[in-house]
Amino acid sequence: MKRTGAQIIWECLVREGVTDVFGYPGGAILPAYDAMLDYPIRHVLVRHEQGAAHMADGYARASGKVGVAIATSGPGATNLVTGIATAMLDSSPIVCLTGQVGSRLLGSDAFQEIDITGVTLPITKHNYLVTHAEDIAPAIREAFLVARSGRPGPVLVDITKDAQQAACDFDWDAAAPRRSRLRPAHRPQPLLYQRAVDLLARAERPLILAGHGILLSGAVAQVRAFAERTQIPVALTLLGIGAFPASHPLNLGMMGMHGEAWVNQAIQQADLLIALGMRFDDRVTGNLKTYAPRARKIHVDIDAAEINKNVKVDAGIVGDLREVLDDLLPQIEPADRAEWLAHVAALKGDAAVRDIQSLPDAGHLYAAHVIHDLWRATGGNALVVTDVGQHQMWEAQYYRHEAPRSLITSGGLGTMGFALPAAIGAKIARPDAEVWAIVGDGGFQMTMAELATAVQERVDFNIAVINNGYLGMVRQWQEFFYGRRYAATPLLNPDFTKLAEAYGIRAVAVRSRAEVGPAVAAARSSGGPALIDFVVEQEDTVYPMVPAGADLQAMIRRPLADDGDGLAETAASA
Q1: Exposure of 525 by Cβ count < 10 A (0-12 exposed, 13-18 middle, 19+ buried)?
Q2: DSSP 253
Q3: In this structure, are residues 209 and 275 in contact, taking their beta carbons and an 8 Å threshold?
Q4: Burial of 71 per CB tally in 10 Å (0-12, 13-18, 19+)
Q5: Is 161 in the active site?
Q6: Is 473 a catalytic residue?
Q7: Digit-coded pLDDT (tens) for 57-105
Q8: Which residues on neighbouring strands pair with residue 437, listed in sequence order?
Q9: Do the beta carbons of residue 160 and residue 73 sit within 8 Å?
Q10: What DSSP character marks residue 26?
């Protein structure tokens, strides 16, 4: 059948199972927008193209499907870049479709011409410049395959305006991608499996490091079975949260720069680390020269480039984690590691600040109160999307995630402004989920124009602004390492409740612990977007903290003396 290039775009998206796209129109993509009206796909009109990329990302992470963003040439395409980079570093499968000037104008510095494939080459798995209508279907089909195969990631397809306007025969089957262009599937050698089994059998103090790859591979059940059979405690990366139930007795909590102190200590004392779907990021390891000095290391990852990249390992297994564990589990004997588990429990000590049902309240409102009370109110069943900064770390510490894909956050790039649009995408992907965007007052102001998108699209979700009047994490670094010289971190904020009300969003400000519960309950029952401005203590600090490049065990702890905030901790639990 004959179709224009613009029609072929939507034909392909429909056949790929796409039901929602996030975008912003413009001249070079206008033929596609004109054709869109004839296809059963919901278009979400963003207020900035960065929001489109983050929404597609949130959609992908919440659903496990490929998210789609669409933009015009020039500034429309370049505005996608931060969102594409965010997806790249967190292995999120999105496809970005951009319009481009006519093929005859390429290289002429035409109006709104930018070499977006050149710009995004380092931050995409692959990208395409399409100049002929007959090449659109093959490019889009291959883009979806590349985005979701192996280690997922973003793909960009740039389509010239004349390619969208031209007509050609459309043959879906003939446009099927050639799998030979993808990297061959890795099948680990039996010798590597045997090496891993031998290392496990000899280990007395092993530890599982659970990463984002567990969620991406769908290996949650296999990892749990592996941990329970071997009785090995589990530490999680930030993006791995939700891959292992928070209430499970083998779950130790988060590792790394702002991870739990006992977790970092256990890593440093372990004699074997089993890294599953994680990449030994610098925020996890600290000083590589002193990282886990007594430990042998097994690393399972689908990306061969990650094996031995940052940390040298004794058994590097390249393959899909679920398949590897399915192969490995029958070869592993059950084990009793009561002595090691008891030792780790002793390292944890009296960590009551994480576990008690009601954090102490000495008349101050702290972000920890807010996160903990939100967890209690939602029963831990919400899908939480966080921005980047102190509130992100407090969420990881105080909200206990039981289910996969229940925490969405920007880890690798650390993108402020991520949460609000990503939460919109997540809610559209999972309309029955209770979605909370937890944002700082700084990051929220970077993308708060997307409040209009939420209202226009009738997105029923809730926004918790952790408002401390600072760029909180940067201020914390200035406190510790720059003599409290707060350069460019104090914020003059608008009245967030009035701002939300201007968009027709229900909003309330909260300044005391007693107000948290009623405000959360009202937001949950509002039947539409709701915003709570939590005005918290300004100079609060995330503990513990490993200074950048320091030894993992060299953590800055919360002062032992209770300074009146009601949150003093013991040395063991801080």
Answers
A1: exposed
A2: E
A3: yes
A4: buried
A5: yes
A6: yes
A7: 999 999 999 999 999 999 999 999 999 999 999 999 999 999 999 999 9
A8: 385, 463
A9: no
A10: -
Contact call for residues 239 and 250 (beta carbons, < 8 A)? no
- The confidence score (pLDDT) of residue 90 equals 98
- Radius of gyration (Cα) for the chain, nearest Å? 24
Quote the tokens at residue 476: 């914390």
Query: CA–CA distance from 301 to each of 26, 189, 210 (Å)?
Result: 40, 14, 11
Count the residues in the chain: 574
Which helix H or strand E contains 320, and what residues bound it?
Answer: none
Which one from 88, 416, 473, 545 is the annotated catalytic residue?
473
For the stretch 411-468, pLDDT in tens is 999 999 999 999 999 999 999 999 999 999 999 999 999 999 999 999 999 999 999 9
Question: How confident is the model at residue 81, as a pLDDT?
Answer: 98
Residue type present at position 301 = D
3-state secondary structure at position 163: helix
- Contact predicate 54/421, CB 8 Å: yes
Question: 264 CB contacts (<8 Å, ≥6 apart)?
Answer: 255, 256, 544, 546, 552, 553, 555
What confidence tens digit (pLDDT) does each residue in 207-246 have? Answer: 999 999 999 999 999 999 999 999 999 999 999 999 999 9
CA–CA dist 291, 268 (Å, integer): 7
Residue of 7, 22, 49, 254 with catalytic role = 49
Task: Return the amino acid letter for 379.
Answer: G
The rounded distance, in Å, linking the Cα atoms of 174 and 135 is 11
User: Side chain identity at 33, as an amino acid letter?
Assistant: Y
What parts of the chain have a pLDDT lower than 70?
A: 179-188, 350-360, 560-574
Angle at 59 between CA 219 and CA 427, to 5 degrees: 110
Look up residue 510 and give its two tokens: 């909260």
Q: Tell me which amino acid residue 389 is.
A: G
Verify whether residue 339 is a known catalytic residue: no
Residue with the two structure tokens 């089957």: 173
Tokens of 379: 């029963």
- The question of whether 444 is a catalytic residue gets the answer no
Q: What is the pTM of this model?
A: 0.95
Active site annotation includes 450: no
CA dihedral of 354, 567, 520, 441, whole degrees rounded to 10: -110
Residues 6+ apart with CB under 8 A from 93: 60, 65, 66, 67, 87, 147, 148, 152, 153, 154
One-letter amino acid for residue 335 of the chain: A
